[in-house]
């Protein structure tokens, strides 16, 4: 659990840093996306990668918590299973909002649209889900503390 938390903490810092760097550029519409200066485009791409990595680490942490709270039962958990368990444990406020963040992450990881409008949609979705990731990380920290999951 410590390794998951350490990874999430590190990724959270980078995620917040890149969000602060692209905040002045937001919103980025299809008309602006192909006109970004190279440095700004690099920042946007860094933000999208940070989003992808942070969401994935949060999801893996939620999965680990789900397994621990089920008394270490080893089983294959789908993304929906993890989401439902995390919601049931009170970590996630809304299954739908988390599922939206997961879908955004999956699109970033697996789709490479050429169309500027689609790329702008991906940037907007990641930007609009940033608070979900931050809130989920805070909720995970609180839950781990309350359940004393890091106590030796």
Biggest sheet architecture: none
Q: What is the N-to-C order of secondary-structure elements (H for helix, E for strand)?
A: HHHHHHH
* Uncertain ranges: none
Structural class: mainly alpha
Q: Tell me the overall shape.
A: elongated
- Straight-line N-to-C gap: 11 Å
Gyration radius over CA: 17 Å
List keywords for this structure.
mainly alpha, elongated, 152 residues
What does this structure look like?
Helices cover 75% and strands 0% of the residues. The model has no long low-confidence stretch (mean pLDDT 92). Helix 1 packs antiparallel against helix 7. It is elongated. The longest helix is centred in the middle third of the chain and has 32 residues, at 38-69. It has 152 residues and is mainly alpha-helical. The chain is built from 7 helices and no strands. It has helices at residues 2-22, 30-33, 38-69, 79-88, 95-110, 116-128, 130-147.
Give me a quick take on this structure.
The chain is an all-alpha fold. It is 75% helix and 0% strand. The chain contains seven helices and no strands.
Walk me through the topology.
Layout lengths: L1 H21 L7 H4 L4 H32 L9 H10 L6 H16 L5 H13 L1 H18 L5
Helix pairs in contact: 1-3, 1-7, 3-4, 3-5, 3-7
């Amino acid at each position: 659990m410590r390794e998951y938390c350490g990874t999430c903490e590190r990724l959270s810092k980078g995620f917040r840093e890149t969000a602060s760097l692209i905040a002045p550029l937001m919103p980025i519409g299809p008309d602006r996306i192909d006109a970004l200066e190279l440095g700004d485009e690099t920042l946007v791409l860094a933000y999208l990668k940070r989003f992808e990595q942070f969401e994935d680490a949060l999801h893996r942490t939620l999965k680990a918590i789900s397994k621990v709270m089920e008394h270490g039962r080893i089983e294959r958990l789908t993304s929906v299973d993890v989401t439902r368990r995390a919601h049931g444990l009170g970590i996630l406020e809304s299954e739908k909002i988390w599922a939206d963040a997961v879908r955004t992450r999956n699109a970033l990881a697996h789709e490479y649209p050429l169309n500027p409008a689609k790329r702008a949609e991906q940037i907007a979705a990641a930007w609009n889900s940033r608070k979900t990731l931050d809130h989920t990380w805070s909720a995970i920290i609180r839950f781990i503390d309350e359940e004393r999951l890091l106590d030796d």
